[in-house]
From TrEMBL:
Residues making up the signal peptide according to the UniProt record: none
Transferase as UniProt keyword: yes
GO BP annotations listed: carboxylic acid biosynthetic process
Pfam families to which the protein is assigned, alphabetical: Aminotran_4
UniProt-recorded Gene Ontology molecular function terms: transaminase activity
Keywords: Aminotransferase, Transferase
InterPro entries registered for this protein in UniProt: Aminotrans_IV, Aminotransferase-like, BCAT-like_C, BCAT-like_N, Class-IV_PLP-Dep_Aminotrnsfr
Top-level taxon of origin: Bacteria
The protein, known as: Probable branched-chain-amino-acid aminotransferase
Record family assignment: Belongs to the class-IV pyridoxal-phosphate-dependent aminotransferase family.
Length: 299
């Protein structure tokens, strides 16, 4: 198991590059107790930070939803990210910006707590590079469901919300599954523990409406690529029956890029799909798009 606290390299912390092992926080940090941190997941390809502006826009929106402002501008954070890649001599890598309330209060309310920001990056191979692009993912239906937007800040990439995914992922550990599929409060398809799910029905890509989970920046990029193939795209309510009838299914997000789903196991039935032609084309197009500079959401 990799110990992320014991590595060589540098992390950008509150305005300075510090040695990796010295990027620490106090045990009474507010976010550790109350879950009020926000983060982003970004990838760089050939040292070009992919969709950086969109990710840092969402980073700031997440902070605003949680009731604090970032002490650094979008431009400053983008430049800090480039410094992290340079300091760690990284070309292709995963990037994790993180912001949190400090140790000035351990009460539920901490309006005057200092806001800290860190940016780390490391080599994290994609699942496709490890063979999942051809074999596809096997999933099991999670017992936990995504909360409604009236009960949690679901539009933010808030660390506290990921505990649900952790519980769902731990429940399938050791059973041979790659991930868990989560439903919303009404029993419709929401997302996996950390990625958006998309299905192909005829000539249309359909993903669940992101009304109780984080809307994927990567998904919108993939939708743009799909339009180049002449496909239609839409966000809609996705029932389990609609998912079962799909021609192809895949997941998308920064960590996985684009990956086919071949199975969903439920207590009463098992759904299966092929590693389809359209998914394969989108995987190839996505990889090509990451190697071109200044590639926004494709129109």
């Amino acid at each position: 198991m990799m110990n992320f606290a014991d590595r060589d390299g540098f992390i950008w912390l509150d305005g300075a590059l510090v040695p990796w092992r010295e990027a620490e926080l106090h045990v009474l940090t507010h976010a550790l107790h109350m879950g009020g941190a926000i983060f982003e997941g970004i990838r760089a390809y050939d040292r070009d930070v992919f969709l950086s502006g969109a990710h840092y826009d969402r980073f700031a929106r997440s902070a605003e939803i949680l009731g604090f402002a970032l002490p650094w501008t979008k431009t400053e954070l983008m430049k800090a990210t480039e410094a992290v890649l340079w300091a760690n001599e990284l070309q292709d890598c995963y990037i994790r910006p993180l912001a949190w309330r400090g140790a000035e209060s351990v009460s539920v309310a901490a309006p005057d707590a200092r806001i800290h920001v860190a940016i780390a990056a490391w080599d994290w191979p994609t699942p496709a590079s490890q063979g999942k692009g051809t074999t596809g993912l096997r999933m099991r239906l999670a017992d936990w469901r995504r909360p409604t937007p009236e009960t949690a800040p679901t539009a933010s990439k808030c660390s506290g919300l990921y505990m649900i995914g952790t519980l769902a992922r731990h429940a399938i550990a050791g059973d041979g599954y790659d991930d868990a599929l989560m439903l919303d409060a009404q029993g419709n398809v929401a997302e996996t523990t950390a990625t958006n799910i998309v299905l192909l029905s005829g000539d249309t890509l359909i993903s669940p409406k992101p009304d109780c989970f984080l809307d994927s920046i990567t998904k919108h990029h993939v939708f743009g690529l799909a339009r180049r193939l002449g496909l239609k795209v839409e966000e809609a309510t996705v029932s389990l029956d609609l998912l079962a009838a799909a021609d192809e299914v895949f997941v998308t997000g920064t960590s996985v890029e684009v990956l086919p789903v071949v199975e969903l196991s439920m207590s009463e039935r098992v759904m299966r799909w092929p590693v389809g032609e359209v998914t394969g084309k989108l995987m190839a197009m996505f990889e090509a798009s990451t190697r071109r500079r200044a590639c926004p959401y494709a129109a």
